[in-house]
Specification:
Layout (H helix, E strand, L loop, with lengths): L9 H23 L6 H10 L1 H32 E2 L3 H7 L8 H12 L4 H10 L11 H25 L3 H9 L4 H12 L1 H17 L2 H5 L5 H11 L3 H26 L17 E2 L3 H17 L7 H14 L21 H4 L4 H8 L4
Parallel strand pairs: 1-2
Helix pairs in contact: 1-13, 3-4, 3-7, 3-10, 5-7, 5-15, 6-15, 7-10, 8-9, 10-13, 12-13
């Protein structure tokens, strides 16, 4: 009996190698730039900005990672294991913040909470002219915007991982006298660790590569420095070498996740034969779960509303009428310009275009 040998799919192997080469070409380009370091630029950055840039970038990544891990895991656990009003709606709606860039959410929050915005204007009228909220243009403000947008990376993977856990394991642990908290931290979360780690690393990668949000908040990070070196100092080679630091941080995240796993191995089993029995929440607990999901969704996803700079202009005009904050020149009505199309008022993705159209001289 002649046993046929293994079939060789050379065409598919060639396609795979071509795709791998295309994907790896930018990485090789960035790494090859280190062969000719720009010592003068590196010395200038090391004396002036590089320590601050590294500290801000690392702090932002750590804050975003912890925030998305806590928020995404909590929301996934609620919609999978609990029953409360609105659960079916929140189960799919909580992924909607991924549809909006983080800088759009930051643009809205700055317009709402700036000194001449509607919220602080209302507080000054209610509590007096000395009432003032902290400025959002700092590290925690940037991290908050990214957490509200990037938590679905953890939520989506954690929801699937929790839903695929066999309820028999959890019921057996409960039958042996373990509390719900002990089962959660001793069985549920360790079994979902690969999904939680993957979602957190993805969110941290997004935070590393984000440029729009840090620019909107004037927060100095490596991505913002790369842009300044390239377009301010006109030094593309130095910018490429700065990008190598970002690449090293991304590789460090992957290595850290691998080291933290140790020798543990995870396997993906079949879906459970029956759905788990959800814990029915009532009273204050049901209200708290609903408010947490609704508040997170409301803060991270705004499908329609007034553009942020219009909100801020309205607050400035209100402050001027009250004799408080003087209105900026952009806060004055522009009667000489045609009104932008109505869709630019309705959809956040069009607000930057509307903002550019309303700028003086445009």
């Amino acid at each position: 009996m002649i046993v046929p040998g293994p079939r060789r799919s050379w065409p598919w192997s060639g396609v795979a190698l071509l795709v791998a080469a295309l994907v790896g070409l930018p990485i090789l380009t960035v790494l090859s730039s280190l062969a000719r370091p720009e010592w003068a630029v590196w010395a200038h950055l090391a004396r002036t900005q590089l320590p601050e840039l590294l500290l801000n970038t690392l702090g932002l990544v750590v804050a975003v990672g912890l925030g998305v891990l806590l928020l995404g895991t909590t929301l996934a656990w609620l919609v999978v294991t609990c029953e409360f009003p609105g659960r079916r709606l929140f189960e799919w709606a909580l992924v909607l913040p991924l549809a909006l860039p983080a800088y759009v959410i930051g643009f809205v929050f700055l317009g709402l909470f700036e000194y001449s915005g509607p919220i602080q204007t209302f507080l000054r009228g209610w509590l007096g002219p000395g009432a003032r909220l902290p400025d959002l243009r700092f590290g925690l403000g940037v991290a908050l915007m990214m957490i509200l947008v990037y938590y679905p990376y953890v939520y989506t993977l954690a929801r699937v991982a929790l839903a695929e856990q066999a309820p028999e394991f959890l019921e057996t642990a409960r039958g042996l006298g373990r509390s719900r908290i002990a089962v959660l931290f001793g069985i549920t979360l360790p079994l979902a660790r690969p999904a939680l780690a993957a979602g957190t690393v993805l969110a941290c990668m997004e935070a590393l590569a984000d440029f729009g949000t840090v620019s909107t908040f004037s927060f100095r990070t490596l991505t913002e420095a790369i842009y300044r070196v390239w377009h301010g100092m006109f030094d593309r080679m130095a910018a490429t070498q700065l990008a190598a630091i970002l690449l090293g941080l991304a590789g460090g995240l992957l290595a850290l996740e691998r080291l933290s796993r140790g020798r543990a191995r995870f396997t993906h089993g079949r879906r459970p034969a029956r759905a788990p029995i959800r814990l029915r929440l009532d009273g204050i607990r049901a209200l708290g779960a609903t408010l947490l999901c609704a508040g997170t969704l409301g803060l991270g996803f705004r499908p329609a509303g007034r553009p942020a700079h219009r909100l801020g202009d309205g607050g400035a005009r209100a402050g001027q009428r009250a004799g408080g904050v003087p209105a900026s020149p952009r806060a004055e009505p522009r009667r000489s310009r045609p009104a932008p199309h109505c869709w630019s008022r309705r959809w956040p993705c069009c607000w930057p275009m509307r903002f550019a159209a309303d700028r003086p001289g445009s």
